[in-house]
Write a structure and sequence with these properties.
This protein is an all-alpha fold and about 190 residues long. It has a single domain, classed as nmb1532 protein domain like (Four Helix Bundle (Hemerythrin (Met), subunit A), Up-down Bundle), CATH 1.20.120.520. Helices cover about 85% and strands about 0% of the residues. It has seven helices and no strands. Helix 2 packs parallel to helix 3 and helix 3 runs antiparallel to helix 6.
Length: about 190
Amino acid sequence: MDSTIQILRSEHAALVTLLRTATTELARSRQTGALPDFALLRAMLFYIAEFPERHHHPKESSLLFPRLRARTPLARSLLDRLDEDHARGDARIRELEHSLIAFEMLGDSRRAAFEFALERYVDFYLVHMSLEEREIFPLATRVLQPRDWEEIDVEFQSNRDPLTGAPPEAECVALFERILERFAASRHG
């Protein structure tokens, strides 16, 4: 139980840091009158599409949430809402990526649209994660049985999110290094 909840909280914290970094990069570029580091922003959005959307959310929706529904009628409407968020996550990130590409290709005329889209996306994600942490994780801790947690823990322990300190999968090493390098360069440049 503690293992899965700790993994989920770590993944949430990493995602919050990434989202805040993206908004900081955008604000810095606006303040300096320069274009943002598009490669950094693209890498961050790609990371979100690759890890949270393909690993984190599917495991919550296919393992944790069904177990909760089976054990208690509490929070069913909230679980439905969170599942709907997960189902729409891929489309949301694609829309944001499209908005970023439009800004990069068409210039400042598309800056405001991307800034607004990023702000909406960050707000959505912060609310989503807050609901999980405030409502769902404590409920899971109260109602799930040790045998529920055994299977859930095995699955979540296989997560390899490099932003939480896990060694990245071989194909993701370059992406993770690029995000860190670009972020470090944008801080010094």
